[in-house]
C-alpha cells in the first residue's frame, strides 16, 4: 500500500475513534479503571471493537496505528492485525511500548497468543523487571492457557516462574501472576491442575504477604471450580 494511502487510512481510523470519544469515559479511565494513559480519547471498548470490525485484517494498518501512540489506536491495531504475519521482533517492539494494563491484556488476549513462538516469548517476558513487561509475560501465559496454546512443558516452566515472582508486590504484576496461576490450574491437563494447586498451597503458606495473597486467592478459585465440577 502506498505511504500516502496508508496515512489516509490511519487518519480515517483516528477520526472514527474521535467521533466515538466520550469526555466521561476519558475522565473515568484512571480513577475507575486504573488506566493511566498519556494519549487517550476516551472511547468505550465496544466502540473500538466496532471500528476494528469494519476494517478487517490489515497488518500494515495495524503497525501504522500502533505507531501513533494513541491508546484507542493501539487497541484497534491488535484487533485488526494478522497473527500469521506477526513476528517475535514485532512482539518485542510493541511490548517495549506497553504502559498500561488495558493495552497489555488486550494485545495478549486478542493477538499475541496466536503468534507462532508465543510460549517462549511469554516465559522470557516473565523474567523482565519493568512492571508492564513482566505483566505482559504472565498475561500472555494466562491467555495461552485459556486459549489452548502452548505445551505442558511451557506451563510447568510457567508455574516455576509464577512461584518465583509471586512476591512481586507491584499491583499489575501481582494480578498477572494470579491470573496465570488460575488459568494454568484450570486446564484439563491433570498434571498441570495438580501442580498449580500445589503451587497455590505453598504460596498460601508463605510468610510473604503478596505471595500469600496470590496463593489464597488462587486456591479459593480452584475450590469453587472443583465444587462445580469445572475448570479453575
Q: What does this 3D model show about the protein?
A:
With 232 residues, the protein is an all-alpha fold. It has 2 domains: 1-82, no CATH class; 89-232, Leucine-rich Repeat Variant. It has 13 helices and no strands. It has helices at 3-19, 23-33, 45-55, 59-68, 71-80, 88-95, 101-110, 118-126, 131-147, 152-165, 171-185, 190-204, 209-228. Helix 9 packs parallel to helix 11 (171-185). The longest helix is centred in the last third of the chain and has 20 residues, at 209-228. The mean pLDDT is 96.
Give the helices and strands, then pairings.
Elements: H1 3-19, H2 23-33, H3 45-55, H4 59-68, H5 71-80, H6 88-95, H7 101-110, H8 118-126, H9 131-147, H10 152-165, H11 171-185, H12 190-204, H13 209-228
Large-scale geometry? globular
Work out the helicity level: over 70%
Could you name the CATH class of the largest domain? Answer: Mainly Alpha
Q: Unreliable segments (pLDDT under 50, ≥5 consecutive)?
A: none
Number of domains: 2
Mean pLDDT: 96
Number of E strands: 0
CATH superfamily (homologous) name of the largest domain: Leucine-rich Repeat Variant
In the CATH classification, which architecture of the largest domain applies?
Alpha Horseshoe
CATH topology of the largest domain: Leucine-rich Repeat Variant
**What is the first-to-last residue Cα distance?**
46 Å
Into which percentage range does the β-strand content fall?
A: under 5%
Largest sheet: none
Number of helices: 13
Amino acid at each position: 500500500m502506498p505511504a500516502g494511502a496508508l496515512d489516509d487510512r490511519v487518519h480515517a481510523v483516528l477520526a472514527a475513534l474521535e467521533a466515538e470519544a466520550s469526555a466521561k469515559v476519558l475522565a473515568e479511565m484512571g480513577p475507575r479503571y486504573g488506566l493511566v494513559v498519556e494519549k487517550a480519547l476516551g472511547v468505550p471498548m465496544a466502540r473500538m471493537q466496532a471500528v476494528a470490525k469494519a476494517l478487517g485484517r490489515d497488518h500494515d494498518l495495524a503497525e501504522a496505528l500502533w505507531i501513533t501512540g494513541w491508546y484507542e489506536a493501539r487497541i484497534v491495531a491488535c484487533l485488526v492485525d494478522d497473527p500469521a504475519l506477526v513476528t517475535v521482533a514485532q512482539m518485542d517492539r510493541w511490548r517495549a511500548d506497553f504502559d498500561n494494563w488495558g493495552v497489555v491484556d488486550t494485545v495478549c488476549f486478542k493477538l499475541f497468543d496466536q503468534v507462532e513462538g508465543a510460549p517462549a516469548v511469554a516465559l522470557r517476558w516473565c523474567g523482565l523487571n519493568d512492571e508492564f513487561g513482566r505483566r505482559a509475560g504472565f498475561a500472555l501465559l494466562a491467555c495461552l492457557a485459556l486459549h489452548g496454546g502452548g505445551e505442558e512443558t511451557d506451563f510447568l516452566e510457567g508455574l516455576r516462574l509464577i512461584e518465583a515472582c509471586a512476591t512481586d508486590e507491584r499491583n499489575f504484576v501481582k494480578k498477572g501472576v494470579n491470573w496465570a496461576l488460575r488459568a494454568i490450574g484450570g486446564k484439563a491437563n491433570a498434571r498441570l491442575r495438580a501442580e498449580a494447586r500445589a503451587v497455590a498451597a505453598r504460596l498460601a503458606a508463605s510468610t510473604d504477604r503478596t505471595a500469600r495473597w496470590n496463593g489464597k486467592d488462587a486456591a479459593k478459585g480452584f475450590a469453587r471450580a472443583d465444587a462445580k465440577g469445572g475448570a479453575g
